[in-house]
Amino acid sequence: MTVHEGVHTSGDPEIGPIAARIRGTRQQAMWLATLGFFGGFAGVSIFGPLVPKFKDLLHLSPFAAGMLAAIPALTGSLLRIPFGAAVDRVGGRRPFVILLGIANVGVIGLLVLLHTSYPKHMGGTYPLLLLLGALIGCGIATFSVGIGQVSYWFRKKDQGGALGIYGGLGNTSPGLSTVLLPIAVGALGIFNAYSVWFGVLLLITLVYFLFIQDAPWFQLRARGESVEPARLAELGGGELVPTGSATVGLKRAARIPATWALVFFYFLSFGGFLAFTSWLPTFWNQMYGSTLRQAGLLTAAFSLLTALSRVPGGLLSDRLPIRRALPLNFALMLAGTLVLAFSSTFTISLLATLAVGLGMGLQNAIVFKLLPGYVPDAVGGASGWIGGLGALGGFVIPPVMGLVAGAVGGAAGYARGFVAFAVLLVVAFPAVEWLRRWSAREQATTA
């Protein structure tokens, strides 16, 4: 008899009656998780555009304004670790709802502040703004929860496509917000436009809460029922069985060297995506004299391409060998970054940003396709480490690029700042080779 955190498996029970009691389906879980992540990320997307206004009203230093802009990404990244790991213990529904609920509270607080104090009575509100940004940032943390949730619903052979759809479509909200929010503000005013965004977030939260179901393994455990883990797919779920403990999941994932290679890869692909999203508006404005609106639209094009390319990237990873995909995508990202660093032609620079975005999107999908294979019994813990520490690239990389830009000076400095990211990409190639050799040794050991 095998024991998996309270679910005892012995013999071969009749699947039919048990399957009839399973609620939800794989597709339903994937689309609801995608919708929830889209809403959480959209909530964060409305905070950033207000930072320049707060900077002027509060006379903030560049550092203080930078901290205000970065605080949602910081909390949203770090909270991915414990909440992603919690999926191994309680399933995805509860941690996902908690995070969306906190993000809703943050947006409500922001609306109250806009209604009562903006713009004439903002003095002394900086600490409150930091707190609201931290609360709203919880919406980003839903990502690692959804990764674990979707992974436990889908069979290994189908996880690439499911996770590609989840991560790709869920990540479109920053790009769409960049395009639509200025239009809404112009037509409705700041408070009314932000109220609409809150209404969307609240509706998404309610839909997710009412209809999402945890994967079959968690439903069985809640009812004291069990089947052999290998037969979970017959109930509409995946073959993976969690460790049953958030702490154990984190520790087990941390002991597997491949976890840290994937953290680094995601630091470059998704962390790089966040970093480019914050850097590109200034780059287009300073390097080519684009207006802020034009720079926003150019950045939105990069953001949407990166997000949407995760979908075909995930689908292809289920059907094609991906052994060479990691170095090829890094090569595409490196080539585009170097062109950006030294080009002085607008069209070439635009094409280079799109090439980088394509490489980042495909890489994001591949990292999470590889995850269940390397860490099969601690997917939640590993997705917490990868999603959390990987997303910190969005907090760490821009200041380093800024140091390079400041050292070079002038408009060209904003282009040369990309060299810092290119150096990190170069380091990725030996890391990919190390992962390949480690995987080969592991397979030989277990064969």
Short characterization:
With about 450 residues, the protein is an all-alpha fold. Helices cover about 80% and strands about 0% of the residues.
Textual characterization of the structure:
The protein has 447 residues and is mainly α. It has a single domain, classed as MFS general substrate transporter like domains (Growth Hormone, Chain: A, Up-down Bundle), CATH 1.20.1250.20. The chain has helices spanning 15-20, 26-45, 51-58, 62-78, 80-90, 93-116, 126-136, 138-153, 159-170, 173-188, 190-211, 216-223, 246-254, 257-288, 292-308, 310-317, 325-342, 346-374, 379-391, 393-408, 410-416, 418-446; strands at 2-4, 7-9. It has a two-stranded antiparallel sheet with strand order 1-2. α6 (93-116) runs antiparallel to α8 (138-153). 51% of the residues are buried. Mean pLDDT is 87; it is low at 1-12.
Task: Furnish the topology, listing elements before pairings.
Elements: E1 2-4, E2 7-9, H1 15-20, H2 26-45, H3 51-58, H4 62-78, H5 80-90, H6 93-116, H7 126-136, H8 138-153, H9 159-170, H10 173-188, H11 190-211, H12 216-223, H13 246-254, H14 257-288, H15 292-308, H16 310-317, H17 325-342, H18 346-374, H19 379-391, H20 393-408, H21 410-416, H22 418-446
Antiparallel strand pairs: 1-2
